[in-house]
Amino acid sequence: MTGKPLASDTAMILAAGLGKRMRPLTAHQPKPLVRVAGRSLIDHALDKLEGAGIDHAVVNVHYLADALEGHFKARTRAPQVVVSDEREKLLETGGGLVKAAPLLPDPFFCLNSDNIWLDGPNDVFSELSQAWDPERMDALLLLVPHPRAMNYRGDGDFHLDPEGRVTRRKRGYVAPFIYTGIQLVSHRLLRDAPEGPFSTNLLWTRAIEEGRLYGISHMGLWFEVGDPGAIKPTEEWLTRA
């Protein structure tokens, strides 16, 4: 892809959740180690980073953290993984970002550890980098329209205005875009954050009010793999791809 280089060489992978919706598969293993199409979920994410040329990953850990750390040590491929340890206290998505911030450049990519997607004409990290404007944006979300969101059965999350600014779905209505769990984040988003556990939604709300939360539409397919029932259809899609 021609144009701007990648906006960052580092990604934060959120992998500290309890994986309750994936039970019973997570009774004795963390959700990021659940296998889909022969690869663990975390390896699907790390492989995408490697393919995009992202050299560094910061991964937060909490539930069955030793298993995840052992997995990282056994992996010999890029990216280089640094652990943000949340064993003592689960900090949720926003708190996890704040704790890891000293390990992260400005800006940085962020993705959920259970993400599986197929790229469109360009990889998603290049797509986000091309659209990134630090003068206007605190965060840039990768969103996907309903027809390209496999296994998804919800009402959507966001609207996009003609300039790409994000607003939330109103209660009782359907929104055209679903958040993929992938974003490009400025440290400005994390300023004056509360201490302890909190959701990134708190920071997004402020960015929306300030007109600094933006999004782009993913041109490929995205798979929601939130429970055991989603694994088989996802594997079937990936086999056909």
UniProtKB/TrEMBL annotation:
It comes from the Bacteria. The keyword Lipid metabolism does not apply. Keywords: Nucleotidyltransferase, Transferase. Transmembrane segments: none annotated. Residues 11-152 form the Nucleotidyl transferase domain. The keyword Iron does not apply. PANTHER family: N-ACETYLMURAMATE ALPHA-1-PHOSPHATE URIDYLYLTRANSFERASE (PTHR43584:SF8), NUCLEOTIDYL TRANSFERASE (PTHR43584). This is Nucleotidyltransferase family protein. It comes from Novosphingobium mangrovi (ex Huang et al. 2023).
